[in-house]
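Quick log. Single chain, no ligands specified.
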Amino acid sequence: MRKKIIFIGIVFITIIAVTIIGKKQKIEPESKNFTLKIVSPKETKKILEKRKRQDLENYKPTTAIDIARFKAYEKVTYEDGEIKNWKNSEVTEEKFNRDKPVTIFYNKEGLSNREVYVVKFQSHLGSTEFPVIFYVDKNSYEILGKGEKGNFYD
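-> predicted structure:
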């Protein structure tokens, strides 16, 4: 019984504190004529493509890893979802391994043991997060392949 009284007291004090703080901080929307707009998938695609174009135009790569990240981000499509914080994506160096599930953009022959940057973006599609992985040639910065969706490997 004593625990219930303490719990109710804490809840009551919390409600009073939130009410007082809420009254002191008058939070008003930026516009009094606030409108919620539901955007179609086609409009969403246009918005994301415009944002991506602006990001690419304003980005000035300075290192080899930055260039690899830039080239990989250029190849991101609407179907890859929304890439957040692409400029800080994970980039590693390794030898290309054809055993991984990869969509090849280049002639399959001659890719084994090629030095590549592996650029791993975190993508959001609705509430689902998944990696989008690109394989970028270390010398030419050509996109050699892309990790397939649904394959979560490191």
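The first strand starts at residue 82 and ends at 83.
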